[in-house]
Design brief:
By secondary structure, the chain is mainly beta. It has one helix and eleven strands, in the order αβββββββββββ. The protein has one helix at residues 3-19, and strands at 45-48, 55-57, 67-72, 75-76, 81-86, 90-92, 95-97, 103-105, 108-110, 116-123, 132-140. A five-stranded mixed beta sheet has the order 2-11-10-5-7, with no helix packed on it. Strands 1, 3, 4 and 8 form a four-stranded antiparallel beta sheet that branches. A hairpin with an 8-residue loop joins β10 and β11. The termini are far apart.
Amino acid sequence: MSPFPRMMLVSAIVLLGSCIGRDDSVLPAPGPAPAPPPAKVDPNEIEAQYVNYLGGAAGYSSTGRPRVRVTRDGAPVHGVSVFWGVNEGHITPASSVTDLNGFAEVQDWRLGLTPGEQTAWGALGAEDGAKRAYFTARVSPRP
């Protein structure tokens, strides 16, 4: 047998041997499907949670801190930003996030310098027209 046909025969056997036992029609099983993103729950209510007393001397911190509860159809909503504002004075932080029970509160409400009533609010958005919960503090003259 000449070397050329022998080389062809060896090549055919090697090629055939590499295909034996191999089934290209069976694909590996796919991994688990990715989890769907969590459903976004939009809040539809914000309500003031009253403290015993909000007020104090002009220019000083209020004796109580505004606190709100955010809900959706009566159930608490976690992770919602609440934006805080005042008509006079200063409130910190400017926004806070609701906890697992739907509550958010400020760290400090520094009352303005004008005695009388002052107002703070928590809102479900920074834009005008966002749902708000209001708080009123009685401010006495500075000592």
